[in-house]
Amino acid sequence: MLVGCKRYGRDVGGTGRAPNDGGGREFLRVSEQLRARLSDGFYHVGGMLPTQRELAAEFGVSRDTVQRVLRELVSEGWIESRQGSGSRVLKTQRIHSSTAKDTRKGRVTLGPLIGEAFEHPEVSLDVYTLTSESLDTHIRLQAERIRTGSIAPQRINLRMLLPDDSLTLPYPRAVGETGDPLLLLKRMQDITRRHTTSLQSVLRALQAERYVPSVEIEIRHAPLTPTFKLYLFNGVEALHGPYEVIERRIILDDGREVEALDVLGLGATLMHHVRDGNEDSQGSVFVDSMQSWFDSVWTRLAQ
Fold it and tell me: Taking the model in full, what pTM does it have?
């Protein structure tokens, strides 16, 4: 069912002239960056987001665009927003670990784990995911660290497994009549292609500009519906977590809202496991088994 079929074009509370938001592209850019901040604990649970006016100024978009993004974050359970009271943070991404990696915050977050992986001379990153959205954001952050000389990896090897585009996945999908039953799936695939192209461009530019001597990127598609997300760092660490299916409203590029079944990749609870040198330890067994699983799908199923 489509609800609230409204188009947004004027800066509410402003002059009536919105900045050039570039349609849905700017909406996606702002929503992706705010999700990444929320997932990594940039905004603390119980704290307040900057005001709509401050966010609009920071990202160079209209307040209408910011309002649309905040509505989507409310539907995903990240924040609660009340008129006149601002937007309060309800959650960040939960990562549970038996190893204290981020002592400054007292918990593990995805950003520092990827950051630590890129501090090694040889960077190996194997990823199995529904989309490439969150990975693109973090790769861009590491690319900036490399360009500023903060880190200097000599070799980066990225392998990413994505679902085959020919699959009709069970999510995301609209609930009720929408006209095109594959509307949301096509939207997700478009977002995935955009982020995949982006991260490939970023990493290959590092080699072309001679910041990193060797960069290898390979992306394959498997005939599987992802039910979990998996990151394998340098063969010694793993992040693993299931996708939880929820019902929420998805806001389309034209401002329409669609009731849908979806999963939240950035909102998934992840478990952190470390290969500690003891081949019989729980961490070592888990990392080794997931690496073997990834390699088997990569070699025998993916194209």
Answer: 0.78
